[in-house]
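User: Is it possible to get a 3D structure for a protein together with its bound compound? The compound here is zinc ion. I've pasted both below.
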Amino acid sequence: MIRICPSILNADRDNLLSEISRISEQSDLLHLDVMDNIFVPNFTFTFEQSKKIIEECPIPVDSHLMIADPDESAHLYARAGSDSVTFHYEASSKPLETIFKIKDEGARVGLALKPATSFHDISELMEHLDMVLIMTVEPGFGGQSFMVDMMEKVRQARKEIDSQYLGKIWLQVDGGVSLETIARAAESGADTFVAGSAVFRSDDPGGMVDSLRSLALKSQTR
Ligand code: DX5
Ligand code: ZN
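Assistant: Yes, that's possible. Here is the predicted structure of the complex:
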């Protein structure tokens, strides 16, 4: 099973709904990047703006919170209707409590790791997770280059998931995913892919989602 989650970070923000309609048929979830200009040096949407996007989005929303206060507010994105809410391990002082608050709102919960954070830092939290997000760029901006040296971390996560949580935990990569890089990520064990620029910079975003999916499927079997 492969999931493609286009990120609207680089889509035309003045026409978000029409941008989303260009990929909604072909995509599994919409990846909503929330940045607060504290945890990362960039700002995207206020909570109210995010809530509006979540409510109006025709497909499930995968909210990726790059915010400094997930312990206080991550669960509100679940309450607003996100299908999945991912917060950063580095931003949380009580990850287990935040995981349960998100789950109590009925959403899937993901935990994101910045490139410098080791997978082993979160292994005791794995049993409570529905998704692990391994960043393949420094969070904050779209259009950066894919960090191939993150594949070792993906392999570690894949090994742990297959040994104890098979089929339960999605393994997502986010940042610089494109036709040139998705095969490496799939071969290393990722099954859920975020793509922003690769999708919205192409002249056929829907077709690009299909191409990314078939490339990932082909590489996954190998
Ligand atoms: C970066 C975001 C990513 C980014 C992906 O902090 O979390 O979702 O928007 O964009 P591309 O695919 O262009 O790297
Ligand atoms: Zn993201």
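Residues 3-220 form a domain with the TIM Barrel fold (CATH 3.20.20.70). The two ends are 14 Å apart (CA to CA).
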